[in-house]
TrEMBL record:
Taxonomic superkingdom: Bacteria
Similarity comment: family membership: Belongs to the peptidase M17 family.
Every Cytosol aminopeptidase domain range: 311-318
Listed InterPro entries: Leucine_aapep/pepB, Macro_dom-like, Peptidase_M17_C, Peptidase_M17_N_1
Gene Ontology MF term list: aminopeptidase activity
Listed name of the protein: Leucyl aminopeptidase family protein
PROSITE patterns with a match to the protein in the record: CYTOSOL_AP
Record key words, sorted: Aminopeptidase, Hydrolase, Manganese, Protease
SUPFAM superfamilies in UniProt: Zn-dependent exopeptidases (SSF53187)
Length: 465
C-alpha cells in the first residue's frame, strides 16, 4: 500500500515550493502584488482564477512556485489539492498561506494507484509530492482516512478470480491480527442450518468459493455495542436470472459493501473508539450451477420468515437479512450496513451519492451533516411504508423482489427493515463503490462513498464517552 505517512509532513521550516491558492474573488488582488513577469505569464496562459482545478508554474530562477485556482480559497474541500498532487513534479510543497486542512486527503489519495497487474517495464512512477502542514496533530487522522479509502479501492478493484469468499475472509483476518480482534467464520452445514439465506445464495458456487459468514469482534465488553454489516457478493452473475454481459462486467465490485464495512471497522479500531465492535460480512459468489437456488424457491430465513425468491439477482438483500438478524441478536444500540444493493439507487442519485436509509430521523440528520462536513455526502431516501405491499408473496411471508420496476432502492431497504427491530437504530447505505469517470484524486475504479460520513458519526457519538 502507498506510504501515505511520507507524503504529509509537519512543517518545521524545511525548504518547500509555495502553492498560492486563489479563487475568482481573490485572484485580482493577489495578481496586483505579483511581479510583472508573473502577470505576463499568467496572462499568456489565460489564467484568471476561475478555472476550477487549473494551476500554473511560476519560474523562480532554477526553481518555481505554483498558483492554483480553487472554488473557495478560504474554505478548502477535500479534493481541491488533488490535481496538484497528481500533476506537479516530485518535491516538497507548502501552502503560501493558511493550512491545507481536510484537503490533505485529496493530496494523499491522488498519489495512490492500483497497479498490481501492470508490467514493471513501464515508465516509472513520478516521485512523491510531499506536503508540509502546520497542523501536525491532524496528520495521523488524514493518513488513517487515506489508508481506509485505499483499502476499499484495492479490494473492489481486485479481479473476482483472485478475491472470492476465502480471500475476503483473509482480508478480515489481516485487519483482526493488526488490532488483536477475534474472528469467527461459519461455513458448511452450520451455515445451512443457521443462515439459510446466505447458504442458498452461495449454494451454486464451487467448493473453493463456498459461502460463509465472517464475524469480527473487538473492544471492551463494557462499552456500547455497534454492529457494522457489509454485503460480500464477491461476484454476481445474477444466478439463474442471469445478468447480460454488460450488467455482469463490473460485478467484481459487488463486495463493495463488505469493503466499506471492513474499512469502517479498521478506522474504529485504529482510533480505539470506546465501542464494542461487531463486524459481520456474509461472503458469497452468486453463481450458476445445478445447485444454484431458483426463481420460485422458498427459503426460511434465520429470523424465521419464509422468503419467496422472485429474482435470484436480488441476492444482496437476502444475505444481508441473515447477517442483520445475527447482529440484532447481540442487542446493539446501532447498526450500520453497506451494500452495492440496487441499480435503482444509481438511477435516482447518480454515481456520487449513496442512497441512505434510516429508521431514526436524528441518525439520518447526523449522517447527512457529517457527509457535508467531510466532503463525503449521502442522500436520505424514504422508508416509505406503503411500498411494502410491493413485496407481497402469494404463498410466503415476503418476496425478495418487488412486483413493480419502480422505487427499487426503497423496496430493497424495506425488505431489510423487516430484519431490524424498531428499538435498534439502523442506517443502510446503498452505495456504488465505484467511479465510472476519473476525477482529481479519484481514479476510475473502486472507491469509498459514505465511509467517512459514517465514521464521523461514530467518532462524534462515541469518542467522548
Amino acid at each position: 500500500m502507498t506510504d501515505f505517512a511520507s507524503l504529509l509532513v509537519a512543517d518545521r521550516g524545511q525548504a518547500a515550493r509555495p502553492i498560492h491558492l486563489v479563487d475568482k474573488d481573490s485572484f485580482g488582488e493577489w495578481l496586483k502584488r505579483r511581479p510583472a513577469e508573473d502577470r505576463a505569464l499568467l496572462d499568456a496562459h489565460r489564467f484568471d482564477g476561475k478555472q476550477g482545478f487549473s494551476f500554473a508554474i511560476l519560474p523562480r530562477g532554477s526553481d518555481f512556485e505554483v498558483v492554483a485556482a480553487v472554488r473557495k480559497a478560504d474554505e478548502l474541500s477535500a479534493w481541491c489539492l488533488a490535481k496538484l498532487a497528481e500533476s506537479l513534479p516530485e518535491g516538497v510543497y507548502k501552502l503560501a498561506s493558511g493550512e491545507p486542512g481536510k484537503a490533505t486527503l485529496g493530496w494523499l489519495l491522488a498519489q495512490h494507484s492500483f497497479d498490481d497487474f501492470r508490467l514493471k517495464k513501464e515508465e516509472p512512477k513520478p516521485g512523491p509530492r510531499v506536503l508540509l502542514t502546520g497542523e501536525p496533530a491532524k496528520i495521523e487522522s488524514a493518513v488513517q482516512f487515506a489508508e481506509a479509502t485505499a483499502l476499499v479501492r484495492d479490494l473492489v478493484n481486485m479481479p473476482a478470480g483472485m478475491l472470492g469468499p476465502a480471500e475476503l475472509e483473509q482480508a478480515v483476518r489481516t485487519e483482526a491480527n493488526r488490532f488483536g480482534a477475534k474472528v469467527h467464520v461459519i461455513t458448511g452445514q452450520q451455515l445451512s442450518d443457521g443462515y439459510p439465506l446466505i447458504a442458498a445464495v452461495g449454494g451454486g458456487a464451487s467448493k473453493d468459493r463456498a459461502p460463509r459468514l465472517i464475524e469480527l469482534e473487538w473492544g471492551n465488553p463494557k462499552d456500547p455495542l455497534v454492529a457494522i454489516v457489509g454485503k460480500g457478493v464477491c461476484f454476481d452473475s445474477g444466478g439463474l436470472d442471469l445478468k447480460p454481459a454488460s450488467g455482469m462486467r463490473l460485478m467484481k465490485k459487488d463486495m463493495g459493501g463488505a469493503a466499506h464495512a471492513l474499512a469502517l471497522a479498521r478506522l474504529v479500531m485504529t482510533e480505539r473508539l470506546p465501542i464494542r465492535l461487531h463486524l459481520l460480512i456474509p461472503a458469497v459468489e452468486n453463481a450458476v450451477s445445478e445447485s444454484a437456488y431458483r426463481p420460485g424457491d422458498i427459503v426460511k430465513s434465520r429470523k424465521g420468515l419464509f422468503v419467496e425468491i422472485d429474482n435470484t439477482d436480488a441476492e444482496g438483500r437476502l444475505i444481508l437479512a441473515d447477517a442483520l438478524d445475527k447482529a440484532v441478536a447481540g442487542k446493539p444500540e446501532l447498526i450500520i450496513d453497506f451494500a452495492t444493493l440496487t441499480g435503482a439507487a444509481r438511477v435516482a442519485l447518480g454515481p456520487d451519492l449513496p442512497a441512505m436509509f434510516s429508521n431514526r430521523d436524528e441518525l439520518a440528520s447526523e449522517i447527512e451533516s457529517a457527509g457535508l462536513s467531510v466532503d463525503d455526502p449521502a442522500w436520505r431516501m424514504p422508508l416509505w411504508e406503503p411500498y411494502d405491499e410491493l413485496l407481497k408473496s402469494d404463498i410466503a411471508d415476503v418476496a425478495n423482489a418487488s412486483s413493480s420496476p419502480m422505487a427499487g432502492c426503497i423496496t430493497a431497504a424495506l425488505f431489510l427493515k423487516r430484519f431490524v427491530p424498531d428499538d435498534i437504530a439502523w442506517a443502510h447505505f446503498d452505495t456504488f463503490a465505484w467511479r465510472d469517470q476519473a476525477k482529481p484524486g479519484r481514479p476510475k475504479g473502486g472507491d469509498s462513498l459514505g465511509l467517512r460520513a459514517a465514521f464521523h458519526v461514530l467518532r462524534t457519538r462515541y469518542s467522548n464517552n
